[in-house]
Amino acid sequence: MLGSCLEFTRQSWNNRIEGTSCEVIVETEDQVELSFTRTWDSTLVGKHVSLKIDKRFVVLRGSSGFYSYAIYEHLEGFPGFNLDETRIVFKLRKDKFHYMAMSDDRQRYMPLPDDRLPARGKPLAYPEAVLLVNPVEPEFKGQVDDKYQYSCETKDLKVHGWISTDPPVGFWQSTPSNEFRTGGPTKQELTSHVGPINLAMFISAHYGGNDLVVKFSEGELWKKVFGPVFMHLNTTSTGEDPLTLW
């Protein structure tokens, strides 16, 4: 089911899971855990941040989803740099997922990414805000699309995602704990937005600025686990209201 939910384009392929090594960490009848690791070296100057990044994916028997988390390390000899933002991003199929939900009172049908293009939208004061002048679906005409409209305080950021009505499938991100995020429980973070995009934010300067940027000195030793988050898929019977997936 997951493969039928995700958008596969040249751009999404260029942002694929990448690593210099892949390892099976756990393999039992009830659990499989995969590790994709990339370690910075001097030949990667200007191409990747100076970290060892270990991306993990965990599948459990009988579970209708998978867990993901990451382990970041800044090792001895690594150059200093600033880590402004890091996250997990899932881009869903724009021909399927049109309804977004992040709480009982914050959910709606969403415009298409095409509506943000110059032929259909007018950029406003900053790039994220676009006036929908000639959207594919006329109901969105005159609205402003801006991903920051869907920000949420991390203490309330428990579940958010998308619904496809044909077929009826829900794609949800659940966050069991926000302790790994920077900024505390009242810091706002992005959730989902037109794309359709689903985000798991780890670090960002959103709503906090430079004080929330993680700054590394040369050779500074540091290690942190981000996550886990749980990506959950559900479905319903044909004819049943797809909103019950929420």
From TrEMBL:
Keywords: Lyase
EC main group: lyase
Entry annotated with the keyword Kinase: no
CDD domains, per the entry: RGL4_N
Taxonomic superkingdom: Eukaryota
GO biological process annotation, one example: carbohydrate metabolic process
Keyword Secreted appears in the UniProt entry: no
Residue ranges of the TM segments: none
EC number: 4.2.2.23
InterPro entries: Gal_mutarotase_sf_dom, GH-type_carb-bd, Polysacch_Lyase_4, Rhamnogal_lyase
GO terms assigned for molecular function: carbohydrate binding; rhamnogalacturonan endolyase activity
Protein name: Rhamnogalacturonan endolyase
Organism the protein comes from: Helianthus annuus (Common sunflower)
